[in-house]
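General statements about sequence and structure are easier to judge against a single worked case. For one protein, we set the task of working out the C-alpha cells from the amino acid sequence alone. The sequence in question and its C-alpha cells are set out directly beneath this paragraph.
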Amino acid sequence: MKRIKLLEVRSELGAGTRGAGMGIDALRVACLNKGSDYFRRFNSVVVPDLNHVLFDKTPFPFAKHIDAIYTVQKGIASTVEQTLRFGEFPIVLAGDHSSANATIAGIKAAYPQKTLGVIWIDAHADIHSPYTTPSGNVHGMPLAAALGLDNLAHQRNIPDAETVFFWRRLQNLAEPGPKLLPEHLVYVVVRDTEEEEDAIIAELGIKWVKLPEIKEKGSRQLSREIYEHLRFCDLVYISFDVDSLDSSFSIGTGTPVEDGLYLSEAENLCQDLLENDRVVCFEMVEINPTLDNGNTMAKNAFNILEKATEAIERRLRLDEVVSR
C-alpha cells in the first residue's frame, strides 16, 4: 500500500504571535497522552526551520522575515515534491500557514501537467500580499503567492524593492507562474477577512462555503458539491488551519475566531473530503500551545488528524485493490 509520510515544519516565521513552532510537539504530547502509536506508525521528515531569526529585527515591515521564509519554503517545496515522486502521501504538519504556498508549489513541481484544486478550511482568507497586508505577517499571504496575485487595485502599502524581490521569489517558487486558478480554490468556513480580501474574492468569484451552509447540508453533501465544483481538477490539496474551529475550542491558536466548526463537524468534514481519490496532500497548521490551557487545542487537533489519517488510509487501501 502507498505509504503516508509526515512532513514536520516547525517554522513560525510567518505568524504574528510566537509559539506555533511548538505545535507539532504539542501534537506529539497529545498522542502520547492518548496512548496512540500514531507518530511511531509513520515515517516523518523534519524540514529545517529558521526560527532563530525571530530574534533579529526584520527589515521588511510589509512581509516580516520574508527572506528567511523564502529559504524555508524552498525546503518545504522540495520535500513535498520528493515525497510525491516516491509515491508517498504527504501529511504536512506545520507551524504557521505561510507553509501552504510551498506545499502547493511542491505538488505542482511533482505534477507539472496536472490541474490542482485547493480546499482551504480556515477562519481567514490568507489572500493578502505585501501591497495589501494590514499586519505584514506572511501567514496571511500564501494564497496570493500561489495564485500569483498582488491585488494592486486595493493597494495600501508601498513595499521596498527587496520585499518585492522575495515576494516574486515566493510567487515563482519551484516553477515560474501561478500554481492555482481562482476557480479551483474553495474557501470553507472563512469568516474573518479584510476589505481588500473581500474585494478580490468577489472579483475573482472564488467559491466560499460559510458556516450556515455547512450546518444545513452536512459534510457528506457539502463534500459532493465541493468536488463537483472542482470537477476539472486532476489533483486536490486540503489545507486545515485549526482556527477554522469555533473559538470555544481553539484558544491554542494565534488568531481564534468565533462561529467556527464544532469538533465533530471538523472531523466529519476532513474525513468526507479525504475519501476522494484525487486528494494528494493534507496539511494541518497553526496549533500554538503557548496560548493554550492544558494542551486542549493539540488534543482536539490530534483527534481530527487521526480521523483524517484513517480516511486517507481507507482510500489508499481501496486504490490498491482497484489497481490490482
Q: What stands out?
A: The two ends are 11 Å apart (CA to CA). The mean pLDDT is 97. The CA atoms of residues 236 and 279 lie 4 Å apart. The chain is about 40% helix and 15% strand.
